[in-house]
Amino acid sequence: MHKDFGILQRPIIDSIKEEIFEVAEEIYKNPELGNQEFKASKLLREKISAYGFLVNEVEGLPTAFLARKKGQKPGPKIAFLAEYDALPKIGHACGHNLIAAASFGAAAALGALGEELSGEVILVGSPAEETDGAKVLLVERGIFNDMDAAMMVHPGNRTTIYTTSLAMEALEFTYTGKAAHAAVSPHLGINALDAVILLFNGINALRQQLRPDARIHGIIVEGGHTPNIIPERAVARFYVRAKEKKYMLEVKEKVIACAKGAELSTGAKLSYRNFELGFDNLVTNKTMAEVFKANLKELGYHDISDEEEGIGSTDMGNVSQVVPSIHPHIAIAERDVAPHSLEFLKAAGSDRGKEVAVLSAKVLAMTALDIMTKEELLKKIKEEFEETVKKP
Prior knowledge:
single chain; alpha/beta; 6-stranded mixed β-sheet; 4-stranded antiparallel β-sheet; 12 helices
């Protein structure tokens, strides 16, 4: 499959295997929350600069970056997405340390081709995927507009190639009531917590009339300070998700209607906002995914699950709306090990996890080379993108 580059490419990645391990380990041992990943961002910038990449900062996003390296010949522009934020309290229990290591490895290997490289390789440092996904802002700023393909590999508990994700919006509802002594003068108060409880009850009833792909889940952020005082302020946060953005927005309006109903019922004044950026649904480019799958098999990996529907959300969905994209998962843990768990955290720091980062780097690089050297393949990828994303 890789007559011109196959013999060359794998030894390049094998030669930097220890460097890929180092990136994975350093980010794992120093977990940083979204938009605070200063150590991880600095490490990746320094590492990729050594391979001749020109690194630029992104205004307003201090831990994001764009690292570019042009080949001697014109050709496709391929983006590898690096994520490196951790989860609160639980560190890299989603394996973003491995995502960063794999994307770095793929970009570095292609950059090492030097004059043999046709096109341009871009390593995109994308912070805060777990919260206020930076890819949303990068898309809005047109960062991906001139790119031909974007890709990354996510660690998981099974290997799936044709992944999808749910569109999502993050809503915060605040109710303002009136404090009063809960025993002496409850009739003088307006209970903001009652409004939040009614909101939860309304959403629970709403779920019966929603499509199976819809998800609504929330927490109470504020609910009062002592039982002896009627709460004058209560705050709840929800994620609203669905398979397609259009339906997700319909569900969002129904949730807002529930919130307004609770306002009318209690008299507590309602305000609401998006407390994080919303994510579009992920559209996998199947032509690209098939090439990735073939390359994975070429490297001797065959434990691959059939296509499945994604039930999480990612800001890679926003990228997939503007450039042909893939977001496959490769297993670092057994199927009964859930992401965002202590068991998955252990897997993200394991030898198996680091070996998967190297494997992912190889498959990403091989897939990118296919796109860069086969005009008909790129044409087919773009035709599918126009048909499935631009003309739904």
